Amino acid sequence: MNKFSSIEMMSKMWNETKEKMRNDNYEFTDIDNAIKRYPILDRIHQAFSYPSEWRYYELKKNIPLTRIVCETTCSLSRIIPDSKFKALNRMTPKDRFYGYYVAGYNNNSLSERIHTGILEKRAQNDSYICTADFYPSRNLKLAKLIPDYAANLQFNEESFLLDMQKIKRYHNIHGGTAGKREIAQCYTYNLLTTVMNDSDVFAPVDGSDENRYYYYAPFHVLASYFESNDYDGIIYPSSVSENGICVAIFQPDLIIPKADTLQCKLDVKDYL
């Protein structure tokens, strides 16, 4: 078994899910049937249904979320998410409108958040943007798709028992039957989130809506699953910015714009 065999196995399962969903003509998109039909969604369900803090992130009211638009119009109303500009996106329940933001995670600066936002929007080097910060109207519960990178898990057969010990120490999980079960679920959680972030699963997708929907369909079901389990959104690493952390909010009215943070006609070159 090679070094990354577990990751390769889970990546293959994710890709098979995309293909199976298309062959099913995207029929099984309700939560219960999707979990029964697609094994990877069942694994995600098992990991995230475990009652432990490692599976979610509490977004405090004082943590800024930065949003940018690729235009020069100096208007806060244009930066606020508007259903008229809804597009096919990855991290939202199907046919729903919401907002993408870059989070002030681990105290990253405004310029770092703008840098990530520019890369996420794929803004041209010779263009301008507008930006503003938003704040949660209350503490929000976000599904956390960020692996425990600091635990340095290896995900191979030779290191399996060592990985289990690392998880136990990293999260201070006690022994016994319940502790062993939690360690196993946390291992699965880390494997799944590592696959999502260290492979092509989160990579930007170009082409027609049909092509993008093929890649996005598992995420649409996943987002619906999280929303049905009382999550307010999803937090996940940017696939194009090394230290960037992004947030998808299911209900835009949970986020309040702060007018005095509005900045207009920022030169993209200054942040790249």
Keyword list:
single chain, 272 residues, globular, 8 helices, alpha+beta
Describe the protein in words:
- The chain is globular.
- Helix 1 crosses helix 7 (176-198), helix 2 packs across helix 3 (39-48) and helix 3 (39-48) packs across helix 7.
- The protein has one domain.
- It contains eight helices and nine strands.
- Strands 1, 2, 3, 4, 5, 6, 7, 8 and 9 form a nine-stranded mixed beta sheet that branches.
- Strand 6 and strand 7 form a beta hairpin.
- 33% of the residues are buried.
- Helix content is 39%, strand content 17%.
- It is α+β, with helices and mostly antiparallel strands and 272 residues long.
- It has helices at 5-23, 31-37, 39-48, 76-79, 110-121, 160-170, 176-198, 209-228; strands at 56-59, 65-69, 99-103, 128-136, 140-144, 233-237, 245-249, 255-257, 263-267.
What's the short story on this structure?
The chain is α+β, with helices and mostly antiparallel strands. Helix content is 39%, strand content 17%. The chain has helices at 5-23, 31-37, 39-48, 76-79, 110-121, 160-170, 176-198, 209-228; strands at residues 56-59, 65-69, 99-103, 128-136, 140-144, 233-237, 245-249, 255-257, 263-267.
